[in-house]
Design goal:
A: mainly alpha, Rna Polymerase Sigma Factor, Chain: A, Arc Repressor Mutant, subunit A, 2 domains, 79% helix, B: 529 residues, alpha+beta, 4 domains, 14-stranded mixed beta sheet
């Protein structure tokens, strides 16, 4: 196998391993959900083009996140249609991500935790009451807007947003408990 | 007097209480604003509230990150398309490689293989001036060629005929053309289809249903350039990442079945028949479309909702090929609404898919009954559930010849006035079958003897003796209707279904003879003029 093919094969393995965590990271920078895949793909394409600059053995995920941060930063500077919501909030989140990047141990911990968190999330979703599961189904699986969900539930969009907020908080607590149980 | 002495770092009790209340109110406001931002639907002022709170309580940024992280994981679980995403990255990388090779080959073609190296010899004497002129000219030439190259790449013409390889295709189906025969195996680079239709299967298992007039070209087995015409793509399991390139953008499959139609006026239409695609355009960036969504776009206009898409149904052998239904649309103008109505010519039969936004439910006869004869082979409009609760909802379509219009209305609920005024209840029912036991629309419905969960629908019909338009209202009861009913009515009926069957002029149609087959039930309805 030529060196180029070896590199490509290795790179695609990294894409498989890192794509879920990278998408979560990009979302945490305030990127719109419908644009997360787009920016993640751009990140990987740039990483491939600059692969000679990456030193094997160092943290590939951290390198990807640096590229992703720069892409999101460029997004904030764009004049036209942007793929982040609430620019000031995104700036805030971006500067926090920049701070974390100066602590490599934090980055490694984040990547390792992500897989455990996804697994814990699946367990926690099973424990949700019926109405909450239905909301998750409508919002995330059917991708219905708050207004449509509100009409179906005979309430208003603001209430739906608050219920989703509490639901996410509950899932976060549940995931922490699950991870705590795994650790003991 | 120490009891009354205040500590330096505490407020008077009443001020502390007020401070707690203010803080609690601020926290609620922050939570609400933050929640709306995470949900992607912030109200004016939400951003300021969140930023102000984060500046005074920087520890709360962890809360924001936590919500976004959960949100991302939930979206990730919902889409479950990691393989499709990996494949789309692979395709994107290959496209970049191909572009690089093309750029280098064009540069070499223009400047020769020594492009980039300065190896010019000049005479002594006025050599300095000559070399300056020569270098100046070569810089101008290089600039001109770079600009040309840039415009070629920007215009997508870098995918010119110089790039492309023949692809071995197998002909699966032929209709109305002598260009191919079923079973042919052909090395195809360019495909021009002036008449008829043909289905081609690629080595990856991707199935292309090509409809004339069509002009297309293969770049390689996973990439097709469509200049004109309609192609329905079914990628199966092996063809994830298959891309159709159109004059206004690329449609990248993410594990799906989709249709792309490029017209001579430069408009491109994309509909997702199952799964998901990404539409990539230089003008508008990337647009993701899911099952049941369709858009049209051009070089000058971004994606706009496409209200209806004709769904091919090759399994039906029917004398009538064209639909009598045209121009299906509704009055829902929500900005993110991209739902389309599926038009299935002659598609109505036992077991046909009922809705475009629900994969499972099918129209079926009651198990103890035969499928209504009058419905067989009718043109079907596959509606969707998404907007069924909007009280102002209106759906309209036009028909090109005298027809019987059928509406299948949820039998659990009293029908709305717009239905009872213009339509007749045939007294016969069909069912939408195959709902999940957790679907909220079927709450309270027990599985039938076959273990299926089904919603019964009354069949209403109306004859239109002239071509014209039909307007239908919402499946929910209006507030006025609710107030006039004698009992509380649930306002969540399932979306109705629609079918249209062309009929002979009324004088020939009344008193039609008994059905040819004893397997189906006749719908006997008096004709209203």
């Amino acid at each position: 196998m030529t060196k180029k093919k070896t590199n490509t094969k290795w790179f695609m393995e990294q894409v498989e391993n890192e794509q879920s965590g990278l998408k979560g990271f990009i979302r945490m920078l305030g990127v719109r959900p419908e644009s997360v895949d787009d920016i993640a793909q751009e990140t990987f394409v740039i990483a491939y083009k600059k692969l000679t600059m990456f030193e094997r053995g160092t943290n590939f995920g951290a390198w990807l996140r640096t590229i992703a941060r720069n892409l999101v930063r460029n997004e904030l500077r764009r004049q036209g249609r942007r793929r982040v919501l609430a620019n000031d909030v995104a700036e805030f989140l971006l500067s926090r991500a920049d701070e974390k990047s100066t602590h490599p141990s934090l980055e490694v911990e984040q990547a390792e935790q992500h897989k455990q968190q996804v697994s814990a999330l699946r367990e926690c979703l099973q424990k949700l009451p019926e109405r909450s599961r239905r909301l998750v189904q409508q919002r995330y699986f059917e991708q219905l807007s708050l207004g449509v969900i509100a009409a179906d539930e005979e309430t208003n969009a603001n209430n739906v947003s608050q219920i989703l907020f509490r639901l996410r908080a509950a899932l976060s607590d549940c995931i922490q408990k699950q991870l705590g149980n795994i650790g003991t | 007097m120490t009891n009354s002495k205040l500590k330096h770092d505490s407020l008077p009790w009443h001020l502390e209480q007020k401070s707690d209340l203010v803080q609690a109110k601020e926290t609620v406001s922050f939570d609400q604003s933050m929640g709306r931002i995470v949900d992607g639907e912030p109200l004016p002022g939400d951003e300021q509230i969140v930023i102000q709170h984060l500046r005074s309580h920087p520890q709360c940024v962890q809360q924001v990150e936590c919500h976004l992280a959960i949100d991302a994981m939930l979206f990730g679980e919902a889409r479950c398309d990691s393989l499709a995403f990996v494949e789309s990255v692979r395709v994107a990388i290959e496209a970049e490689e191909t572009k690089s090779i093309f750029v280098r080959s064009v540069q070499e073609a223009i400047f020769g293989s020594t492009f980039g190296r300065s190896g010019l010899k000049c005479d002594v004497g006025d050599s300095g001036m000559q070399s300056k002129n020569w270098l100046g000219n070569s810089v101008s030439l290089a600039l001109a060629c770079s600009l040309l190259l840039a415009s070629l790449i920007a215009g997508g013409i870098w995918n010119a005929a110089a790039i492309g390889e023949p692809v071995l295709v197998e002909v699966d189906r032929v209709d109305g053309t002598n260009a191919f025969a079923i079973g042919d195996k052909v090395n195809l680079k360019a495909l021009v289809l002036p008449e008829g239709a043909v289905d081609l299967r690629l080595p990856s298992g991707v199935l292309l249903e090509c409809q004339s007039p069509l002009m297309a070209r293969f770049e390689h087995p996973m990439r097709l350039h469509l200049s004109q015409g309609r192609v329905d793509v079914d990628v199966g399991e092996e063809g994830v990442g298959f891309t159709v390139v159109t004059p206004v953008g690329e449609v990248v499959d993410l594990g799906t079945r989709f249709a792309v139609n490029a017209s001579v006026d430069g408009e491109v239409r994309v509909a997702v028949l199952s799964g998901q695609v990404e539409l990539r355009s230089q003008k508008v960036g990337t647009v993701s479309l899911i099952d049941g969504e369709a858009v049209r776009l051009s070089g000058t206009q971004g994606p706009q909702r496409l209200h209806s898409v004709e769904i091919r149904n090759h399994g039906i052998d029917h004398a009538r090929k064209d639909s009598v239904i045209h121009s299906v649309s509704d009055n829902v103008e929500l900005p993110k609404n991209r739902r389309f109505y599926g038009l299935v010519p002659c598609g109505m039969r036992d077991g046909v898919r009922a809705y475009r936004d629900r994969k499972a439910p099918r129209w079926e006869a009651d198990p103890s009954e035969d499928f209504p004869e009058g419905l067989l082979g009718a043109d079907l409009i596959q509606t969707f559930q998404t907007h069924r609760l909007q009280r102002e909802f209106q759906l309209q379509f036009s028909i090109s010849q005298p027809s019987r219009v059928y509406v299948f209305y949820d039998a659990r609920y009293s029908p709305p006035n717009w239905l009872t005024q213009d339509f007749i209840n045939t007294g016969i029912q069909i069912r939408s079958v195959g709902w999940s036991s957790t679907a909220f629309m079927t709450k309270g419905i027990e599985p039938d003897a076959w273990g299926k969960i089904a919603i019964p629908h009354d069949i209403w019909c109306r004859d239109l003796v002239h071509p014209g338009s039909v307007r239908l209202g919402p499946p929910v009861l209006s507030k006025q209707d609710l107030n006039t009913t004698s009992e509380y009515e649930g306002v969540k009926p399932s979306m109705y279904g629609i079918a249209v069957q062309p009929i002979a002029p009324p004088s020939q149609n009344i008193g039609k003879s008994a059905p040819e087959s004893s397997r189906v039930k006749v719908l006997s309805v008096s004709v209203q003029q």
